[in-house]
Amino acid sequence: MLLNRDDWYETSRDLDWTFSYVDPNEVFPASWSGAGDVPADAWQDWEEPFRVSYRDYVRIQREKEGGVKAVGNALSRAGVFEKLDPAHLASAHLHLGGTCMVEQMAITMQSRFCRFAPTPKWRNLGVFGMLDETRHAQLDLRFAHELLKVDPRFDWTLKAFHTNEWGIRAVKAFFDDIMLNADCVEAALAVSLTVEHGFTNMQFVALAADAMAAGDINWSNLLSSIQTDEARHAQQGFPTLAVLMEHDPERAQQAIDVAFWRSTRLFQTLTGPAMDYYTPLEQRKMSFKEFMLEWIVNHHERILEDYGLKKPWYWDDFLRSLETAHHSMHLGMWWYRPTLFFKPNAGVSPAEREWLREKYPTWERDFGYIWDQIIANVQAGDVPATLPETLPVLCNVTHLPIGGACAPHELAEHKSEYKGKVYRFDSHISKWCFDVDPERYADHPTVVDRFLAGDIQPMDLPGALAWMGITPDVMGDDVYDYAWAREYVNA
Amino acid sequence: MSATDEFVPIADADELWDGEMEAYDVDGEEVLLVKLDGRFHAYDGVCPHQSVALVEGELDDGVLTCRAHEWQFDAATGAGINPSNAALRRHEVRVTEDGKVAVRLCSRSPAAARQ
Amino acid sequence: MALFPVTGRYIGDHIPHLVAADTDDTMDELAAMVARHSVGKKVPVPPGGPVYDVYIGGRRIDPGVTLGALGLSPMAWVDVVPRGAEAP
After folding, report:
1. Residue A36 located in a structural domain
2. Domain assignment present for A42
3. Is A49 part of the contact surface with chain B (CB cutoff 8 Å)?
């Protein structure tokens, strides 16, 4: 008699053996499994709800590949790319440079699940996850490679993570930590549950819609196709959380609270500027704040409630930062545009500013006067006065500029001393992340730490740009050549 | 149709072909209407996974697949196929004598009112 | 005389900057170096002209004092405001 799919699935998936010649703790060392004090039999409750057999997996993935390739081929003939808005392109450069190699890192994380996860069910799911992430990294690379002939910045899809560009180092610092250096349990909570299910799955759906609106059908199709894989491997977090809530809820709470804040800071750096400044005004459907409240906040609250977690202690401050932090990050990124590998849009023409005022009632008070000064300098023909002459100061947890997590009037010093050294932070929340686990962050110098240690020579801005790998063919500049500033009538 | 029984007409019964689905707004909530073997079924319009609109998915052989992450549901019952522990929220449907499909949101049903 | 970097924040700018000062710099000189990255660039020139006060740990430091005399750690946080403006 043939087994039905579910019975077959469980029999095949749960195939395991009892170790008799070696100590199971040597086969699955806690430093990689993350099992900690969770009793071995507790993992029997680990159950993934979304299931697929290997045969179905191969069939479905093959169909998807065919679909992506067909759309790509049709559009490359149509010359669609050349007609896209240059500000939209900045989103594509930023997204591909900032995420392609994260997909590549995720292969290693999923491979670790295959080998070291504390239950065969999870190890089985890791196989699919590993294949999914391989597909995602390769799809991004293929897409970007096709576009190299029209724009050298797409080279940074592959190159970015092999440079010291400061924003990429911030992304890398987070994923080195939670993907490459974390045990299976922490990786599932921080990456699968918080980053993937909580943030990027939602963002990819929104980004695909934005790309479609901008006429970038090929990229939209690629993003959607990647997204269809996520239900399978992003679910690794939930059963892991369920087990932890039974046996070590405090560890779960802390891992998720830290990952949620660090994910937020990266979103305020990458997604916030892309949504509220790079997306052409007529194509914006919701503001970054609206997106965060409707999608990220609602879903996170639901998960916390479903699993019996508390809201992070910093919840009110997190909500407050949605009004300000990404505006500050955007201003800083635009100001430091020679340190970027893409051309940012200032996004503060009179019409765009009107939109910002409507969406963010305190925007004008918090940031308007700074942009006014910049506009005055551009109008006076003094573009050099809108360019940096020194480095900002970076946070020892997020590696993002201090000042980038709040409005100017809220900016305050946050620091901790550890083993005789002073560490600085962009917020009291990042300081808390450090204080609960200083060893994790202490030995990861920021670009500024490197600069002060003499690793970057010559010790000036050109020296720093060369060290970051910024070359003249990709160096960022205002994408519309300051046309937006000239729209203001001289006062 | 009376105002008191909370059934809201949303479509003409001949508006959908068999095997088709469409989304409608009922008091600000998105409702998915599915027609299968001549019968209508109404569900919450968004996927219980990550709130993506189900009408953008595929309906094939009585199986509804969400476009975003391929969660699958039995379109005749709303029961989860993959994952099997999920389900669509079902709304009551009736076809009125004048050929309209009317829906009562599950939040408005007498059972909900008693809770 | 030695290189002494500080975290220099001009009140009103949205970020502090890395400012490569020197232990021999007076507060007036330090203030000018901090203000250089912000005033007329990201915040308006103050009405009283380019004269500033330095605050460290909420305390105004005498303009003639040198940085080296304060016993600070490198990258200490320094606030700069227009002279006579209220404390940050």
Report:
1. no
2. no
3. yes
User: B52 and A205: CB-CB below 8 Å?
Assistant: yes
**Total of domains in chain A:** 1
Mean pLDDT of chain A: 93
For testing contact with chain A, the best of B46, B47, B49 (most A CBs within 10 A): B49
**Gyration radius of chain A over CA positions:** 23
Burial class (CB within 10 angstroms; exposed 0-12, middle 13-18, buried 19+) of B3:
exposed
Residues 6+ apart with CB under 8 A from C23: C1, C2, C4, C66, C67, C68
pLDDT tens digits for range A12-59: 888 888 999 999 999 999 999 999 989 999 999 999 888 888 888 999
Q: From A421, which residue of chain C is nearest by alpha-carbon distance?
A: C73
Asked if the structure places residue A38 within a domain, the reply is no
Other CB atoms within a 10 A radius of the CB of residue C2 amount to 8
Cβ distance A391 to C13 less than 8 Å, yes or no, reads no
Instruction: Please tell me whether residue C2 adopts helix, strand or coil conformation.
Output: coil
CATH number, domain of A480, equals 1.10.620.20
Q: Do A452 and C5 touch (CB under 8 A)?
A: yes
Write out the H or E segment, with its range, that includes residue C35. helix C27-35
pLDDT tier at A236, thresholds 50, 70, 90: very high
Of A52, A231, A295, the CB nearest to B49: A231
- C14, C16, C36: residue with CB nearest A393: C16
Does the complex come out with an ipTM higher than 0.95? yes
Domains identified in chain B and CATH numbers: 8-106 (2.102.10.10)
The per-residue pLDDT for B41 is 97
Q: How close is the nearest chain A Cα to the Cα of B80, in Å?
A: 10
Nearest residue of A to residue C57 by CA position?
Answer: A413
Domains of chain C: 3-82 (3.10.20.270)
Which among A328, A385, A393 has the least Cβ separation from residue C40? A385
- The chains found to touch C (3+ Cβ pairs under 8 angstroms) are A
Contact call for residues C53 and C63 (beta carbons, < 8 A)? yes
DSSP string, B50-114: T--BGGGSEEETTEEE-TTT--EEETTT-BEEESTT-BPPEEEEEE-TTSEEEEE-GGGSHHHHH
